[in-house]
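Box 3.1. Reading complex inputs
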Amino acid sequence: MLRTKKWRFAILAILPTLAIFAWVRMFPIWETLRLSLHRWDILSRDKPFIGLENFRELFQDQLFLNALVNTTIIAFGVLFVTIPAALVIAALIYHRTRSRFAGFYETTVFIPHIVSLVPAAMAWKWIFDANLGPLNAVLEFFGIPGQAWLFDPVLSVICIIILCSWQALGYAVLIYLVGFKNLPHTLFEAAKLDGASGIQRFFFISVPLLRPITLYVSVVTLISGFNVYAQAFVLASDSQGAPGRLVRVLVLDMLENAFRNYRVGYAASEAVILLCIVLVLTLVQFGLLREKWNR
Amino acid sequence: MADVQIRDVHKAYGEVETIKGVSVDAPDGQFVVLVGPSGCGKSTLLRMIAGLEEIDRGTISIGGRVINQVEPKNRDIAMVFQNYALYPHMTVAVNMAFSLRLARTPKAEIARRVAEAARILGLTEYLERYPKQLSGGQRQRVAMGRAIVRNPQVYLFDEPLSNLDAKLRVQMRAELKDIHARLKTTTLYVTHDQIEAMTMANTIVVMRDGIIEQAGAPLELYDHPANTFVGSFIGSPAMNLIEGHCDGQNGAIKLDGEAVLRHGVHGVPAGPVICGIRPEHLAIVDAESDGIDVVVTTLEPTGSDTLVQARLGDQIIAAQLRERITAQPGDTIRLGSAPENTHLFDAKSERRIAASD
Amino acid sequence: MSDADQKPAAETVPGLGMTARARLTNLTIDIVLFVFGILMVLPLVLLVANAFKTPQEMVAWPPTIIPADPTLDNFRSVLGETPLLRWIWTSLRFAFLSMVAIVITSSIVGYVLAKFQFRTLEVIFILILATAIVPFEVYMIPLYFQAQSLGILNSIWGLLLGYLVMSFGIFLIRQNVKHSIPDELLEAARIDGAGELWIFARIVLPLLRGPLGALAVLSFFQAWTAFAWPIIVTTSRDAYTIEVGLALFQTGFTVDLGRLSAAAAAVLVPSVTIFVILRRNFVQGIASTGVKE
């Protein structure tokens, strides 16, 4: 009687959300998977099943391969900048938790993570600007010739990495801070009594103990790196001014295929590749975490 | 006012049967304590009476009405939980009034009942406080008050005192007993603490592994445990259980063929038995008397008593002696007990053997 | 989590006092963090400063942080050229509706998944968990065609379609219910005669104020800063969200820096202000993303 009543409530309560969930989440995911195996050019009526043909074509598509390489470089670039920096900054902030400025440190580091992508990217676009930007002005002050940051394919990738790292840092610092606060505090005292200096405590205690957190933050950073879009869209216009064309990233390539070239099936197969990358990263994370537990 | 009858109740979670046919009678106005080690099914049984768990088989009735299919709120019961389950965002008064409000009791009536319960429990000054502003004992009282205002036919308590510290527990035990004496409402009380059971109950129901081992008045359980489990569960320190052998010819209980623990036992078949002797029933006896020779390992004089731990072979024997003794660890002493205090259990079934002297 | 109940690693031996060296170390760290913090927000500060500068001052070196001759010309001309306020209004409505939808769906489903033990619910939970790792970008193209067939492109409902539910919100609430609401509380209420809906509304929701606040803030900002979905769903200038509007506005060759900065500042200043005010909620919400089961 009670159980039946609870069951009825649970199902009725969950049903509307579940319906929405199926409608805006599960169905489109399923559609992505399905379309990736079909040729569908918006204009044509029929959508023939073509197996893995889309994927075969993708791996001969220079634009796609270029996007894949760029996105991978950006994702890993952001990772290698963000993680060490975040760990150090978090350790310093944690060390100064009792300082009256602790709130200020946390806030300033975190603000870039929450501000809207586009205005923030616009600020950086100005900084990188070849003629008006402060970056070149600073470089020239030190006698280094200014660069056309946003018009060089290699330099603009670096610019995107800087912008993305600037944004990702706050999140990583915050998660690390939670990790630091959960570390057994007696451990640090014991290490102190053992004569470990602050830097030694950081390398021999904090870093190894925070490994699960590093793993988690790394995967989150990588996944969001692979989904980079707005930053490239704003920063890297090509010489005709078309946004995002200079540094092709996966999402941009996908959207162009879908909405400019009307090749929806082809775009869906790109989405599937993006999904596979994310899945592999997630599985690696779980695999490494489990390995750690089993030791 | 009503009695509670539990008839052959069964409960299984998947393959695991946690209640294996239990029948309990709680007569009107009685204080019945369900006691047993954790996992024995006592809490499940209580939750079945409350209506929080389904009954697979058997019936539970309150005041003669079978309530298997009745919703919790219509069973006319009130329950006090171990962690009190006070609504943290409501004041004491609102917590206590909650069920009455839900039942659309008139406002004046609610106020009267809350005030009355607060008076009984000494909570009048705390009515406007929130649970987190109260001490453990006060929270416990609020939980009681929430039950009292409903004026139910049956109170159900699920380990209500186990979150309190030792001193407060003793005090609340007395208060609960006092409240029951005043209200005279049928009460079922679950605990794993046999002292709570002994001090509060009219009837104790000892459970283990989903069945009832013994039910009866506290002293009856103490004096005549039905089996070794009840024997060792009721009473503290726990009863010593010593393996022995009954000599069929002259009715002697022997240990290792040598020491004679008790003479003149009749009606007990020859063979292995278990002797149960409570530590407080052991005393030092002289060499001629029946008894066991044990080697003292530790002595703990408490002033009123001397607690002795001693070895008999590889078994530890505990004794609570009234007198102060001169023996030292390593010394051998002889302990014996009166025949009526030496309980005999069948070695295989562990059930009590009724011996006639 | 408050800072006060967490002892930091340093200075934990009371009564011993700090050595001069330790004090010097702390001072150095403070300076490093201070400079670093300033550098982190400097791009934004300069952007806002630029918004108030005249064209002459804009190109001056070194850049000034407080404009010598502040002007509102940039704002005036942006407002004349673009429907900036309309974009902001669209974004506000979109973010607000998305927040409402996410808070409602997450709280109900999170509670049910936390406190009701049924096989079916376990399956549903696993389903939600499995789809949670799929990034939005992966399925937004089919979702676009769903919006198209409903005829809600270029409308707030089209925007909303992608932001009605949030798997993370469901997990957040489920975790909080599991940890902070004991079963006995609900059972006591059931014995007291409360119905299931009543229990949810009067006992569960009031006790979830903290996490619900965090979720509200997170979901609002998630929609407010959304980019990829709005840019494909909205194609007419009047329907843009502020993010899309800005991104497309800044690609114009004729637009000068002052007006760009003014437009960007108009978006940045309110959202940073709100963040600083709601910082605690944010931190609580974001921090809980890292706390895995």
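In summary: The mean pLDDT of chain B is 89.
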